[in-house]
Write a structure and sequence with these properties.
By secondary structure, the protein is of the alpha+beta class. The chain has three helices and nine strands; from the N terminus they run E-H-E-E-H-E-H-E-E-E-E-E. A five-stranded antiparallel sheet has the order 8-7-6-5-9. Strand 5 and strand 6 form a beta hairpin.
Length: 181
């Protein structure tokens, strides 16, 4: 399920656009997280993950939401309309972006520490910023998190990964917590 909405702000000069984008990406994601978290809670939903990235079609702000029993298209549209209005008023961002609201799908993103415990025993893919044991990409069974260290069983070996080193983590072939999605 996905709802899209084009949001426009003033355009920055093309030459410095990529540098500006990278410098402000984390700040924008944090702002959106704060706004979207309270909205999702008020609507009885879980904010799963926020992505802000450059794509061939331009900048995309993608919000993943979930709720027991799964997310409907109407849920995505409702959050899109409300969050779009909140972002228009509160987001300090230059340039236009596409706002997408989506269910997490079968490759559910893992972004919060509690996700790594909640989905312990599930298969996951993890990409790290700095190599661990000479590798940057891992696929295995999620064993959980202890403090700031995520553990993953990869080829019968336990791999310890610092939470701060994780650049991307997703479940593999996730069918919902009760197999209902």
């Amino acid at each position: 399920m996905k709802a899209q909405r084009k949001r426009s702000k003033t355009k920055r000069p093309e030459a410095s656009e990529e540098k500006y984008f990278l410098a402000h990406k984390a700040k924008i994601v944090n702002q959106v997280n704060e706004l979207a978290e309270s909205l999702c809670q008020a609507e009885g939903m879980e904010l799963v993950y926020v992505e802000y990235q450059r794509e061939p079609s331009g900048r995309t702000l993608r919000i993943y939401i979930d709720k027991p029993g799964g997310v409907t298209l109407d849920d995505c549209v409702n959050i899109s309309r409300q969050l779009g209005d909140l972002l228009d008023v509160n987001l300090n961002s230059d340039g236009s972006y596409n706002l997408e609201i989506s269910s997490p799908g079968s490759d559910r993103p893992l972004g919060k520490k509690q996700d790594f415990e909640r989905f312990s025993g599930m298969e996951a893919k993890i990409r790290v910023a700095e190599p661990v044991d000479g590798r940057k990409n891992f696929k295995g069974i999620l064993l959980g998190i202890s403090g700031d260290v995520v553990t993953l069983l990869v080829d019968d070996k336990t791999v310890a990964i610092a939470f701060q080193n994780i650049s991307r983590a997703r479940l593999v072939n996730y069918n919902g917590e009760n197999g209902c999605l």
